[in-house]
Specification:
binds flavin-adenine dinucleotide; binds flavin mononucleotide; membrane; binds NADP nicotinamide-adenine-dinucleotide phosphate; six-stranded parallel sheet; 24 strands; FAD-bd_FR_type; FNR_nucleotide-bd; about 1000 residues; Rossmann fold; endoplasmic reticulum; six-stranded antiparallel sheet
Amino acid sequence: MPQGLGVVLEEWKCLDKEYQQLQETHRMYLQKLDEISKLQNNCSSSISSQRKRLKEVSHLVEKCSKGASEEDAKTLDEINEKIKMQPNAFSEMEAFLPKKNGLYLSLVLGHVNVTLLSKQSKFAYKDEYEKFKLYHTVLLMLFSFICYFFVSYRFLDAILNFLLVWYYCTLTIRESILITNGSRIKGWWVFHHYISAFLSGVMLTWPDGNPYKIFRNQFLAYSLYQSLVQCLQCYYQSGCLYRLRALGERHNMDLTVEGFQSWMWKGLTFLLPFLFFGHFWQLFNSLSLFRMAQLSDCKEWQVLMCGLCFLILFMGNFFTTVAVVRHKVNSRNQKPKSIGKAKSVNMTDMDAETSTHTEPAVDEEEPLFSNLDLFLFSLIVGLVIYWFMSRKKPEQIPEFKKLDTTAPTTRETSFIEKMKKTGKNIIVFYGSQTGTGEEFSNRLSKDAQRYGMKGMAADPEEYEMGELARLSEIKNSLAIFCMATYGEGDPTDNAQDFYDWLQENDDEDLSGLNYTVFALGNKTYEHYNAMGKYVDKRLEELGAKRIFDLGLGDDDGNLEEDFVSWREQFWPAVCEHFGVEALGDDSSIRQYELKEHTDLNMNKVYTGEIGRLKSFEVQKPPFDSKNPFLAPVTVNRRLNKGGNRHLMHLELDITGSKIRYESGDHVAVFPTNDSALVNKLGQILGVDLDVVISLNNLDEESNKKHPFPCPTTYRTALTHYLDITHPPRTNVLYELAQYASDPKDQENMRKMASSSPEGKALYQSWVLGASRNILAILEDMPSLKPPVDHLCELLPRLQARYYSIASSSKVHPNSIHICAVVVEYETVTGRINKGVATNWLKNKLVTDNGHKSTVPMYIRKSQFRLPFKTTNPVIMIGPGTGIAPFMGFIQERGWLKQQGKEVGETVMFFGCRHKNEDYIYQEELEEAEKNGVLTQLNVAFSRDQEQKVYVQHLLKKNKEHIWKLIHSDNAHIYVCGDAKNMAKDVQTALHEIGEELGGMTRTQATDYIKKLMTKGRYSQDVWS
Ligand SMILES: Cc1cc2nc3c(=O)[nH]c(=O)nc-3n(C[C@H](O)[C@H](O)[C@H](O)COP(=O)(O)OP(=O)(O)OC[C@H]3O[C@@H](n4cnc5c(N)ncnc54)[C@H](O)[C@@H]3O)c2cc1C
Ligand SMILES: NC(=O)c1ccc[n+]([C@@H]2O[C@H](COP(=O)([O-])OP(=O)(O)OC[C@H]3O[C@@H](n4cnc5c(N)ncnc54)[C@H](OP(=O)(O)O)[C@@H]3O)[C@@H](O)[C@H]2O)c1
Ligand SMILES: Cc1cc2nc3c(=O)[nH]c(=O)nc-3n(C[C@H](O)[C@H](O)[C@H](O)COP(=O)(O)O)c2cc1C
């Protein structure tokens, strides 16, 4: 036998013997398990039978007590006492016996056994539960903190709310398991977690509209506060339980995280102010939400539901805490003095906030608050007060009453129901960004009256567009669409949802819908009238009936004329289609009635706010087009060294506004009209501009109650709300004609509003060609004396002006830079016309009589973004003020380099008139080139030599390098500035380079550039 085999046999024998023993042990274990199981059954059934018999004995004792002798009565009393003690003993026993799951646990987990059969495992489970709460609370605190202070994305909010839902759901399950294992958490605190889970779930589904934005910060601050209190509580509980354990008084489920803080001896007293503050915050939340729910444009059911949940939470928490305090005070009074006799309490029940149980026994001799208690309490209160004071009046209850009365005040989202209710048969939807489309819609809906029909203008964002198919329910019905195009053939913001709906619903049957489309666009843009064309085509595809051809309006030519001509042919087509006739009633139709206020509290009068009344005094984020931020101007300097023009660089301070931006975004500013023009208007019309008025819509069902925020003064309306500098449209002339006392003036005004060739030519030359604004018209037609209220009704709204942000948020997170040229020109009548916003901005000095100059602004996101991969080369083409976004891009590429990132080639093409005059940002550009942020700087000085040199000429000069960057190195091309000529010429130059170096035909080169655009590698930020 080989030597090794002996060892193997020996080993095997040994192993086999051990295995026999293991088998025996396991057999015994199974036997014991069996016995345990039998014993458990035995105990359980014995306990049941004991309980039953105990009841019977109790009845017998009661019977025997009647007429029993003194001695017998004593014996019976003793038995009675013991009977009373028994149920507790049974409960203690049952804590270690398997139990049936309650309804909730059975639903969630099924019938799995969740009873923990040893003290250790119970302690461990409770320990884990406490730790889970603590860790999760810290996580929630962090999340609320980040969302509140740093990032404002709905997506992150959704994650926070999801975490909350998950947290509360998990708590309800873990607590049910604890209860099954002998914990006495009960009553309100259990219910509290169900409500909280529901509340967080509702918050999660709340869509990202204005109501959500208003409540968001309040909710985040509340979550942050609750998490902090929760952490305090964890410490409090652990301290109490540690103490109870030290006293040998703990309940078997009361073991919790280690740690005892001496200052927690009076824990509940210490916690009470925080708890009550939290409860009242819940009440405040609920009241805020109820008030918000009453707002006309608050359509979300979540508002009311969350309000209700907060109210329930407040009531439950408040009354339970009051009960605890009462109980505590009572038990303090009855409490024996010695610690040794202190009554045991179950601190497990002090779960969420506190419990209906008393706090741990404390020595009566101890003072109510220790010095440390007072110190910490004062510190925390001090910090809270400091935080509140350091913000701008944040304790003010948010003004939820939305006073922007131009916004809808009814909740109707069904335009069909509204039309039926108000007897309308024509609806004019508008996709409009700067108001022209909306203006045309109003004019068309007003026209309807002249043909015996009733029309209404409607914002597609406010209505359920899925109802279009139902329009056939209304006799002789017609939908008109006035759709403007933006960006790269994109819809306006208010038409985005409608556009998505059209794209997504292939199966929609619109066969009963009569429609027509008027498109608003500008020929200088690549995607001319793309949106109007799309809507027209798509509605036809879905079966709708086009009753008149698509109208194309070109803002580069004469949009007004295009519209008037189209309208002139459109109405006869409508009449023919529906078999109706024009009523021949051409009289002016007023839409608003004037109300003068003589005794109105001036606090209720708008003074230029865009949205909420007093929003400029009490600024509350989030800031957007309806709630602009008043940004202080910190820098305002002239950029050009010479020449007659004024190019300026402004810096707006956004510290504390929570406004975030990216390089490439636009900043919108709300300008103010020149006060000299306003005064002249008042003078020429002979009116007191400081009269407080309201213009109220005569159509009570209309969503638009006033043409601008009312009540206000004429001065405010003409200064902040109305456009008094652009040449008025023909409808304004038509309506004003009635107020010209000279028949010649009247005739000319009517002629200009007509579609006759002479009328059009007159309007083109006398109004547009001479850039006559309303003041110039009133000056040049002295017989024209319109009532100021009618004029205010007719003038369009003053629009915000956009500027490409000239800074990077990476380098300047708290300021936004603007690069702009002041608009000023002489008209053919010899008048000097000044651009509203640029002249107003020019005069925004950093301090104005010791006050900071401010600018109402908000951010508009754009698609004009640096490539995601920093290594991709970029080619930036931006002559004149077109350099603006590239100042941001250059800063950002420099910052990336500083961070140690590898950054691709950065090539700049800039153009200006003269090197010594308007080579703006020369130092910055040359510095960037010197330190390698700009790998190539090309500047075209157009007027420094006989022949014009433009950016596109330099592009062609560098064609080999440019083509290599585009074709081989995946470069991204950016063009910014003039849309009318420059952007087109640059594109043509690139086509030519493609042709020459890519060996393509012109068509192929055009397609090549188009493809770059669709891939997001050719972006334009252009205006005209
Ligand atoms: C997306 C976007 C980004 C922009 N970025 C910038 C930027 O970074 N920097 C910048 O300076 N501008 C930028 N603009 C233009 C800017 O928004 C304003 O249009 C511009 O500053 C003029 O505003 P204003 O109120 O001073 O002039 P307005 O009062 O609006 O007057 C301008 C109008 O006057 C008329 N006009 C102007 N010059 C003449 C003339 N010589 N003859 C006859 N009529 C004339 C035209 O009708 C013109 O529309 C941008 C525009 C858009 C849409
Ligand atoms: N809507 C408004 O109120 C408004 C206000 C401001 C600016 N803008 C637009 O914004 C553009 C930029 O204005 P700005 O004052 O910043 O610029 P700018 O100083 O007028 O022009 C910058 C440079 O671009 C040159 N240029 C002119 N036509 C060009 C073309 N087709 N291709 C390439 N370069 C060309 C100019 O040369 P020359 O001048 O020597 O020909 C100049 O050297 C203007 O063209 C204007 O359309 C509009
Ligand atoms: C930044 C900007 C982008 C534009 N993009 C386009 C476009 O891609 N295609 C187009 O046809 N018109 C374009 N336009 C022109 C507008 O559609 C046109 O001026 C229209 O009358 C605006 O209507 P609104 O005042 O109702 O918003 C653009 C205008 C601006 C200011």
